[in-house]
Design a protein that fits this description.
Blueprint (H helix, E strand, L loop, with lengths): L4 E5 L6 E7 L3 H12 L4 E7 L7 E8 L5 H33 L27
Antiparallel strand pairs: 1-2, 2-4, 3-4
Helix pairs in contact: 1-2
């Protein structure tokens, strides 16, 4: 069984490498590319999915030489995991409030009660 990441150092471009990430697609490719580009040591980062039926993408990274492309990718993945973990914690916390509060109004858009507009008394256009 092969590795899920293969590295090919670029011989024509200094401080550059291409990473083949197996069993992944645009979802991870775009997130990793964006995270890599946010780092000041990176001169170029791009990814492509060569063919939709082949389950991998290629990520090319070029740095200014202060860090290797491999080190940049590792650091970017660590930051991305931390960001997603933080998002997950916030998401779970927000939904735990919704279940414990219990007093969430039936109509969150305020179309009933004081100050609400009356939208007509007949049938709604969706009532057949």
């Amino acid at each position: 069984m092969g590795h899920s990441v293969e590295v090919t150092e670029d011989t024509k471009i200094p401080n550059a490498a291409t990473f083949k990430i197996v069993k992944q697609d645009h979802t991870l490719g775009n997130m990793v590319r964006a995270q890599v580009l946010s780092m000041p040591q990176v001169l170029f980062a791009g990814y492509k999915v060569p063919h939709p039926l082949h389950p991998y993408f290629l990520l090319k990274i070029q740095t200014d030489g202060t860090m290797t492309p491999q080190a940049v990718l590792e650091q970017a993945c660590t930051k991305l995991i931390a960001t997603i973990s933080s998002l997950e914690a916030k998401f779970k916390r927000e939904f735990s409030f919704k279940t414990t509060e219990g007093n969430v109004p039936e109509d969150p858009y305020g179309t009933t009660g004081a100050g609400a507009q009356s939208w007509g008394t007949g049938k709604d256009y969706l009532d057949f």
